[in-house]
Design a protein that fits this description.
transit peptide, mitochondrion, Pet117, transmembrane helix, transmembrane, rod-shaped
Length: 73
Amino acid sequence: MSSYTSKLVLALSCSITFGIVGYVHIKQQYDREKMHEGVIRDVERQQRRKIENVYILEKQNELTKKLKKELES
């Protein structure tokens, strides 16, 4: 009877250990994917800001030229 109990405890311990290791591995992979998505969103956000800043700069240049023309007239 003791041998059966020992085998059962060993099998249960191994099962729990493999389950925990598997869970941790899957969780780490999920976390890495989420962090990578965050980096991609940050890069996209920076590109949008750059485009907006260029647009604003062009508008300011146009307004400056217009103001200079009005002042010269």
